[in-house]
Structure formats: structure tokens, C-alpha cells
Amino acid sequence: MGTYSKKNRLYQAFRELGHVIRTEFLLKYINDSELRVLIHAATNKSEAFNGFSQWLAFGGDGTISTNDRDEQRKIIKYNHLVANCLIFHNVFSISRVLQDLQRETYPLESWQIIALSPYLTWHMNRFGRYDLDMEKQPPELLYDLWTHESQILMAQK
After folding, report:
1. Rounded CA gap, 53 and 62, in Å?
2. Residue of 41, 38, 36 whose CA lies nearest to 115
């Protein structure tokens, strides 16, 4: 196994087993429309996050110009940290608007809430000047906005 020889019978057996597992999965995928919808939704979420984090990457198109593995990991982790901070900001802002609408007795449907995305960028100034007030606390966020039905629908997505 340590030689990576393709002539090794154990290697060949594992390769064939891999083919069987992949074929079995593809047959399930073709036959099960719910599985296809689930995989498609998960893929869309991953691609949306990847596009969002690439938009946030400073200095160009997100290409990492170093071959140093530790530096590459650091750049990716920092980019994900910034992306997660912005996602938190977006979710907080969206929740505050939804709470205001709820206080004004505006009818909110579950499908409307589920359609919201935390990957908003239009309101962000990536390269501008920022003044931070580290003493400022955000207003309290009420977590009971979502009904049980909304939570179930979110879990299914």
C-alpha cells in the first residue's frame, strides 16, 4: 500500500469498491428527486458563500499569490473571519428590520423570511475609511421572532 503501485491487488480492490460506491450513489441520485433537491440546495449555499468571500478578498480577485502553505491557510482563515463578521452584521441588521416590521404589525410570511440571504454586499464599502467605537453595544435582539413553522422550513432548506 505504501508504494502506491497500481499493480497491487489491494489497491485494485479498493479502486473497484470505490467504483461500486460511486455507482450506487449515482443511481440513488438519479432515482431520488428529494436527494437531488437537497444536494442542489447545499451546493447553492456553498457557492453563495464562496462568491461572497471572494468578493470580500482584498487586493483583487481572491487569488493567493504565495506558495507557502501556512500563509495560504492564514489568508483563507482571515478572509473567512471577515466574511463571518459581515454575515453576522447582515443577519443582525435583517433581524432588526424584521422586528421593526413585526412591531408595526406588518404581515410576515415564512417563505419571505426563508428567502432572505446574509450574503448582502451592496451596502458595504470595502475600501473606505472606518471609525470603530469599541464601547458601543448593539441594541438587544429578540430571538422569538421566528415561529415554529419558520424554524421547521429553515431546517428543511
Report:
1. 8
2. 41
Kindly report, residue by residue over 47-98, the tens digit of the pLDDT.
Answer: 999 999 988 887 666 678 888 999 999 989 999 999 999 999 999 999 999 9
Question: What letter represents residue 141's amino acid?
Answer: L
Sketch the domain layout of the chain as residue ranges: 32-156
| Inter-residue contact 41 to 157 (CB < 8 Å) | yes
Residue 121's CB is within 10 A of a number of other CB atoms, namely 12
Residue 154 amino acid letter: M
Helices 33-56 and 9-31: crossing angle in degrees, nearest 10, is 100
Kindly give the residue spans of alpha helices, DSSP state H, lying in the chain.
9-31, 33-56, 69-103, 110-114, 148-156
- Residues 99, 139 contacting (CB under 8 angstroms): no
